Each structure stands twice: as structure tokens, then as C-alpha cells.
Amino acid sequence: MLESETLIQKVLRKWDEFYLQWEIYTLTYLFEPWEKWIINGVILGILALLGFSSYVYLPGYTRKLINAFLPATGSEHHLHLEQLQSTGQMDFGVN
């Protein structure tokens, strides 16, 4: 009889599989551990800056994208944002 895995073991196994695929796709398995940290840090930094800048400089489009992935609250929230934009009450702080 096989022992059942706990939830933590399943999550750790999935994380290990994901990280192995990440190393293969980015070819970081060829580097030393300290080089992996630097490369992964740079990639994470670029993704963080991309997400932040898209939220700050493209707020309407970013909110529509978020609403597309959250359909449960998307329609009501989307209509409320359009009403605020049409009345001029929405200020993003970008000139």
C-alpha cells in the first residue's frame, strides 16, 4: 500500500518540478549557485518593474486585464470604473 503524500510534500514536489523546468528553459542549470541567484534576481526585478510600470502608466488597460482574469467581480467593477472615467472623478496621478 502506498503512503499518501501530505499537502506540503505535494506542493514541494510541484515546486521542484517547476524550478527544474525553469532552470532548463533559462539554461541556468549550467551556472554556479551564486550566478543563478544573480540571474534569477535580474529576471525577477525586470518582471517586477514591468508589472509596476504597466500598473502605473497603463492603469485602464491593466485593470481590464485583471478584470478579464477575475470574471466573478469583473462586470460590476468594470462598469464602475467606466462611470468614474466618464464623470472625470478618476485620477491616476499621471500627467
From TrEMBL:
Pathway: Lipid metabolism. It is found in: Endoplasmic reticulum membrane. The chain crosses the membrane at residues 37-58. InterPro entries: Ser_palmitoyltrfase_ssu-like (IPR024512). It comes from the Eukaryota. It is a multi-pass membrane protein. Its main location: endoplasmic reticulum. GO terms for biological process: sphingolipid metabolic process. Keywords: Endoplasmic reticulum, Lipid metabolism, Membrane, Sphingolipid metabolism, Transmembrane, Transmembrane helix. Pfam families: SPT_ssu-like. Component of the serine palmitoyltransferase multisubunit enzyme (SPT) that catalyzes the initial and rate-limiting step in sphingolipid biosynthesis by condensing L-serine and activated acyl-CoA (most commonly palmitoyl-CoA) to form long-chain bases. The SPT complex is composed of SPTLC1, SPTLC2 or SPTLC3 and SPTSSA or SPTSSB. Within this complex, the heterodimer consisting of SPTLC1 and SPTLC2/SPTLC3 forms the catalytic core. Within the SPT complex, SPTSSB stimulates the catalytic activity and plays a role in substrate specificity. Component of the serine palmitoyltransferase (SPT) complex, which is composed of SPTLC1, SPTLC2 or SPTLC3 and SPTSSA or SPTSSB. The heterodimer consisting of SPTLC1 and SPTLC2/SPTLC3 forms the catalytic core of the enzyme, while SPTSSA or SPTSSB subunits determine substrate specificity. SPT also interacts with ORMDL proteins, especially ORMDL3, which negatively regulate SPT activity in the presence of ceramides. Belongs to the SPTSS family. SPTSSB subfamily. This is Serine palmitoyltransferase small subunit B. The lineage of its organism: Eukaryota, Metazoa, Ecdysozoa, Arthropoda, Hexapoda.
